[in-house]
Write a structure and sequence with these properties.
The complex is a heterodimer. Chain A is an alpha+beta fold. Helices cover about 50% and strands about 20% of the residues of chain A. In chain A, the strands form three sheets. In chain A, strands 1, 2, 5, 6, 7, 9 and 10 form a seven-stranded mixed sheet that branches. Chain A has a four-stranded antiparallel sheet with strand order 4-3-8-11. In chain A, strand 12 and strand 13 form a beta hairpin. Chain B is an all-alpha fold. The chains are: A alpha+beta, B mainly alpha. At the A-B interface, helix 1 of A face helix 3, helix 15 and helix 16 of B.
Chain lengths: ~350, ~350
């Protein structure tokens, strides 16, 4: 543990009427990660670990010297498990905080689960052997659980997760995933350049362009919604390595189509490949911890989020492309851009399949 | 924080090495209970309980453990378990004066006056006459005539051959009887006498503060309690008194009390309902909630203070029927208490 930081030293300040011994473990989850703080009364730590030299006053030096022992005591006696698998804990640099009934040792707690937990088992076993009336108050997602002994206590998480939070997750999933952005740009890129009587030329009307892009994006949305639902409810599940590789290959296909122009109806390409992307979205959703009670809301929210994320990208890209459609820059972007996407996505496919 | 006693540290180490040595655990637990009382700090009760952890859940622990377990249970307001343990202890050790005295206290709190009388009677052969009188007098005052009970205990207290420590303790009981008779001024004089001999007698200080509040002298009550905020029973009374006089510490003390109440609720503690009801009634003026607390408190403990509180809350709510458990208790035992009658507006 790093050197503790001193916030308030008031160990000898007169305490108010005495409380029984409580410690607070406050945790909030963000995906698979849990962050929070553990507050333990310094006098309780002294009872357990004999921090004071016996004169009745705990000095800062004594606390600092005991910091590694305190950290070891805590990590030995607190464990978190998300859906049955351990979420290893690391402790940050402690601070001393002054609460109404005396000084508390405040330890930042950081735990990482394999994935976003739907149930969290908290094993809290501090101090009970010293003080049978000690209570560990575990504050989690707006609930407070009381540990009265070392028996694990279980909290259901995500019950309070709103549809809105899934909308947010959907948007972020699109924006954070380069493969989705590139796929989308590959579909939109040629839209401003349309085939007229066997020849390709710059589109005249923005309305035609928007209509075509709308058709393409709608086809993609429909397709991925179908596979997202059937996969999220467990009707069809595909191995994630296969899905991820296929998504990368779909990006190759979309970019190649820009170069070779084999399939004119881009909505058909979008639909076919959208089916694949739906499986990818559902694995994200399952990793987030799909609430069984609010499945519909979660699916709907996530899908709406994905659409909003896509719409934002299209709304930024399309006007720019329309303006530059007659320039050399556009031609360069279309050919060189598509070609490099082919290369990058081909490399991803190789990576995802074989590495 | 108390200094660490080297002898206690040595005993702890010895117990850690041979955890079966019940006599060591009992001595250490007794020291923790004494500390809990001396510092008015419940933390040390939990430590005493943990020290007895090896025997705590046994159906038939050694007699010394039974006595301490009952004492801790009583302090945590688990009167039922305390009574069971004391009955069991007396069955195996009928000459244990402390067991009889604690049993009398527990039985009185739960309004089982017959059992309390049996325990006081058992003390006749086991304890000093003043202890027996101080054990009996509150029962006589509740179930009989407070004047007669007062005179008998007053005579016993004035016996110069009695132990001075015992006399101070019995004087506190005598002051309670004076209050029951309606002699608040006489009680105040007695309580001041106890405090001048021992300023650390928190029980006498709380009782005197109550007398002053009853006499509509909150400023004097607050002054009396100043400097004793670390004792729960005195803190709640000073918060109420300061609030009444809009004193400089009112805001802070009220905040501290709200924090304490919230903290107790968070861990589902229900042992401060009497104090919480007092505070809720006098400071928050949340009469329905205070009445609810006073009723729940009456289900657990039935001392005169608890009866008065429920009567006061019910009267404040304009719902005397809500105090029906108290009126039927008072009728069943022919209770005469000046403050209770006043709380009912003279209607009892």
């Amino acid at each position: 543990m790093k050197t503790a930081i001193l916030i308030v030293v008031a160990l000898t300040s007169p305490a108010w009427a005495h409380k029984p011994s409580d410690a607070h473990l406050a945790l909030h989850g963000e995906g698979a990660v849990l962050d929070g703080r553990l507050d333990i009364a310094v006098r309780d730590l002294d009872g357990a670990l004999q921090i004071d030299n016996g004169d009745g006053t705990i000095t800062w030096g004594e606390l600092q010297a005991a910091a590694p022992r305190i950290a070891a005591y805590v990590t030995d006696r607190i464990a978190l498990a998300g859906d049955g698998s351990a979420c290893p804990i690391t402790l940050g640099a402690a601070q001393l905080v002054d609460l109404s009934d005396g000084a508390y040792w405040a330890l930042p707690v950081h735990a990482t689960c394999a994935r976003r937990p739907t149930t969290l088992a908290v094993t809290y076993n501090l101090l009970f052997d010293l003080d049978a009336q000690h209570r560990g108050l575990v504050h989690l997602d707006g609930q407070t659980l009381i540990a009265r002994d070392g028996t694990p206590i279980t909290a259901t998480l995500g019950a309070a997760t709103s549809t809105l939070s899934f909308v947010k997750e959907g948007i972020w999933h699109i924006w954070m995933g380069l493969d989705h952005i590139l796929f989308l740009l590959c579909l939109v890129l040629p839209a401003v350049f349309q085939r007229r009587t066997a020849r390709w030329q710059a589109a005249d009307s923005l309305r035609d362009v928007v209509t075509e892009v709308f058709e393409t994006v709608t086809a993609f949305t429909l397709a991925h919604s179908i596979t997202l639902v059937i996969s999220a409810v467990g009707l069809v599940t595909l191995p994630s390595r296969f899905v991820e590789t296929a998504i990368a290959l779909s990006v190759v296909a979309a970019a190649l189509n820009n170069l070779l122009r084999t399939i004119d109806a881009r909505w058909a390409v979008a639909f076919a490949l959208g089916l694949l992307h739906g499986f990818g979205f559902s694995s994200v959703l399952i990793d987030l911890g799909l609430p069984s009670k609010e499945l519909i809301g979660a699916l709907l929210g996530f899908n709406v989020g994905v659409e909003l994320g896509q719409a934002a990208i299209v709304l930024v890209a399309l006007p720019v492309l329309f303006l530059i459609r007659r320039t050399l820059a556009y031609q360069a972007l279309l050919w060189a851009g598509s070609a490099s996407v082919v290369l990058v996505a081909a490399f991803w496919s190789y990576q995802r399949c074989f590495i | 924080m108390p200094r660490r006693d080297p002898q206690e540290v040595a005993e702890r180490q010895a117990l850690a090495q041979s955890p079966d040595r019940v006599e060591l655990a009992v001595a250490l637990a007794r020291a923790e209970i004494k500390r809990a009382r001396g510092l008015s700090d419940p933390r040390y009760l939990g430590r005493a309980q943990a020290t007895l952890g090896r025997w705590w859940k046994l159906a038939e622990p050694p007699p010394d453990v039974l006595l301490l377990r009952a004492t801790i249970e009583q302090s945590l307001h688990d009167f039922k378990s305390a009574r069971t343990d004391l009955d069991q202890l007396i069955a195996v050790r009928p000459d244990d004066a402390q067991a009889h005295l604690t049993r009398a206290v527990v039985a009185t709190v739960t309004a089982d006056y017959t059992a309390a009388r049996t325990s006081c009677a058992a003390l006749e052969h086991l304890a000093a006459p003043l202890i027996v009188e101080a054990c009996r007098a509150p029962l006589d005052a509740i179930e009989g005539d407070p004047d007669v009970a007062y005179r008998r205990l007053a005579a016993a207290v004035s016996d110069p051959s009695a132990d001075p420590g015992l006399r101070a303790w019995a004087q506190g009981t005598l002051a309670e009887l004076a209050i029951q008779r309606g002699d608040e001024a006489g009680a105040a004089t007695m309580l001041r006498g106890i405090l001048s001999a021992d300023p650390d007698d928190a029980y006498a200080r709380a009782a005197l503060a109550d007398v002053l509040m009853h006499q509509h002298e909150p400023a004097a009550a607050s002054a009396l309690l100043k400097g004793f905020d670390q004792i729960d029973n005195l803190l709640v009374r000073r918060a109420i008194a300061e609030h009444a006089v809009h004193g400089p510490d009112a805001t802070r003390l009220v905040q501290v009390m709200h924090d304490r109440i919230a903290a107790a609720a968070e861990r589902h503690d229900r042992i401060h309902m009497r104090e919480e009801a007092m505070f809720t009634l006098a400071v928050d003026h949340d009469i329905p909630h205070a009445l609810e607390l006073a009723r729940a408190n009456w289900d657990v403990q039935k001392e005169l203070a608890d009866a008065r509180l429920l009567a006061t809350a019910a009267t404040a709510a304009g719902d005397v029927a809500a105090a029906a458990p108290v009126t039927s208790w008072a009728e069943a035992h022919h209770v005469h208490d000046a403050r209770l009658t006043a709380a009912f507006g003279g209607a009892l």
